[in-house]
């Protein structure tokens, strides 16, 4: 049986070799909670061993961030982002480098902070870093997201356990989601990637025009972008290398047409956004735009999320995940989008992932909008999959195919 230290080493190596797939001479920027220092150090070690030119670490701390959110002036929150920080991010995209975002913050870290102040910060960063974000979504860098337990996150998942027990339980759950519990995790990921590729190949061959979602609280029709591409598992960079952005991943995804969404969709899992949880919410769309919404919990946060800019009222991503997936079958609600979105079919409001639309990577924001590819300063996934979800797909010729039945693939 593997020790914890052996599992942690394998996890760090998997992130570097399989997730980021660091190439000789690339640099790496790691965004890490200070509680994840041990794992960050291991990633740094493996990065250099695999040819990384230079590793930079930006430490994150929700406690000091909260002081900033509550104490800084409105002008600072709305407009201040140093040019050197903007230049740093742009340098990584311009040089085709790597980014690792270690997720694990307490999902309730900013509870009680004005949602409007949180929105100002997200809007400001989204505007100032839009060139980097565009490059990231286009595949100009290798990037990955991986989770490391913090005390606040672990206790939100396992509230009945002590802090140390909750952290231990969450570590074991994470190791299982990324296949570290298997004898050869790298080989397991290769096999998993092939299974996702089979679904991608089928969907790209069928060229479906419309998806119709139906479940309790959901009756939604989504027109896919005419030039959409389905992607799953690994991504291909613009410089002909591969990487896996999400560890774990169970999804295949593509881009909807900005103005082709109609009906109502209801959430099936909590959404952690801007340091708060939003739960039991629904969105109603007309001609692509959110025209009504409600939430039992986190209404004000959802309202501010939708008001980041006009693009946050439109969809930018459609993702298919079977209800009978390893993460879903764990029975754990992670209160973290990286994990919960891979346990459930999901959608995303906000900017589109441009690599999932043919030949649009070099277009301007205005040209993308004209082509029906949504643009925004934000991108937020929310989970809609359930055991009663049916999805019927329709081709341009009117052929209808039962794509999902009772929450799972029907093909």
The biggest sheet amounts to: 9 strands, antiparallel
CA-atom Rg in angstroms: 20 Å
What is the SS-derived class? alpha+beta
How much beta, percentage-wise? Answer: 25-35%
For the termini, the CA-CA separation is: 37 Å
Helix and strand arrangement:
Blueprint: H1 4-20, E1 27-33, H2 37-49, E2 54-60, H3 62-71, H4 74-79, H5 83-94, E3 98-103, H6 115-128, H7 130-138, E4 142-147, H8 151-157, H9 163-177, H10 185-206, E5 210-215, E6 218-224, E7 231-232, E8 235-236, E9 242-243, E10 246-247, E11 252-254, E12 256-266, E13 271-273, E14 276-286, E15 289-297, H11 299-306, E16 315-320, H12 326-329, H13 337-340, E17 346-350, H14 365-370, E18 379-383, E19 390-394, E20 400-405, E21 408-409
Parallel strand pairs: 1-2, 1-3, 3-4, 4-10
Antiparallel strand pairs: 5-6, 5-19, 6-12, 7-11, 8-9, 11-16, 12-14, 13-14, 14-15, 16-17, 17-18, 19-20, 20-21
Helix pairs in contact: 1-2, 5-7, 6-11, 8-9
Can you give a write-up of this model?
The protein has two domains: 4-177, Thermophilic metalloprotease (M29) (Thermophilic metalloprotease-like, 3-Layer(aba) Sandwich), CATH 3.40.1830.10; 205-233 and 249-409, no CATH class. The chain is globular and about 55 Å long. The chain is an alpha+beta fold. 36% of the residues lie in helices and 27% in strands.
Q: Which key phrases capture this entry?
A:
single chain, 411 residues, alpha+beta, Thermophilic metalloprotease-like, 2 domains, nine-stranded antiparallel beta sheet, five-stranded parallel beta sheet, 21 strands, 36% helix, globular
